[in-house]
Design brief:
This protein has 19 helices and no strands. By secondary structure, it is mainly alpha-helical. Helix 2 packs antiparallel against helix 3 and helix 16 crosses helix 17.
Length: 415
Amino acid sequence: MRLLTTRRVVTGSRALAAALLSALLWVFGAGPSLAVSPADLPSPLSGPGVAELKRGQQKKIRQAWQEFLDGDIAASRKKAHRAGDLVPTRLLEFQILLTRDDPAAFDGLRKLCESNPDYAAAWVTLSFAAEAFGAESEAFSAADRGATLWPEPPWNERPSRLYRRWVDDRITRADQLLEDGDTTKAASELEAARLLDPGRSDAAVMMAEILFGNQQIAEAELILSDFTDVPEVGFLRGSIAEERGDWQSAMEWYSALPAGYPGRAQGLERAQIQWRLTLLPGYARSSMTTSEMTRGDLAVVLVSVRPQLETLPGDRVPVMSDIVDHPGHREIITVVRLGIMSADRREHRFFPDAPVSMETVRDAIQRTRTLLGLTVPVWCTEPDVVGSGCLSITPPPSGGAVVRAVLDHQPGVSR
């Protein structure tokens, strides 16, 4: 299965509900959806569980079965009638009705299997009837019962064939539909597959992705609740927790993933940083949300987002007389000590309330990331930069834009 990514989809909740209703109608449709031929079915005298019959009765039923295979229904019924009202002749009559798309065959076969639970040929025939009339779950159950009673080809292979067609193939189609952005059809395929096998975690994850993309978060979490030990589920639960702003839960979900799982380290880092941000003092949160940053705001944001900067060794701190009463004086000292930002050593001032220039912002972000061993950002203003992988901060620089730029890119990868 592909690496999970949360998709923002265009399907609305009404369209999604329509897709699910369509799936239900497909699975439980009233009309026949498959033409059954005599050659598809087992002989009433074949397989385990056939009632004991006299030799003459067996002969007549074999003749009736051959007439059925030859397409002479009248002759088949006539010979079966001569054999008498027997379990195999009743099965033959239901098989005749089934090939004629008569709904009476379905109900009759149900009752026949109920009264003759070890009659393998009846269960196999019931599976074809259920398939023909769109009752997929019953078709699969009947095929499974038939295969258990009659573990020989082709009947013991029928459950796996049905499963591939109704579960595996649908999930595969849904995966491709999601890649193509058609979430309505994907939801229909997934719901039909999940009705037959609600234990498929890959289908549950894809369905939850669709619901999550439609902001149906409670429904997505409900689907995922039965698959707590599946890594893909844990990753998506972490993404959902992030969307809700529940950083503690996000950290727990990401932490529980296997080491090295794709996206685990980045998700855990995001959640940890966001959790720490909720504990920041008011002045720091104000700097992060400001639309026009000052030099002091930039220093506060850099150190608040990457607090490990405070533990790094640096140079001696020059005297800065204008930061004594500034709420971010500790962060300012850190960025100056590390050479991320500079102070005026002649005037002994930092100018914390002055608007910060774009050049200062870019230089400070680059130095911060270099000190932390993170990727060096590629700015969209650089020559020969093409594509969406570059970083862009439009003037005047805002706190939110700087936060995103400091957090962007994966650690430990050089440009």
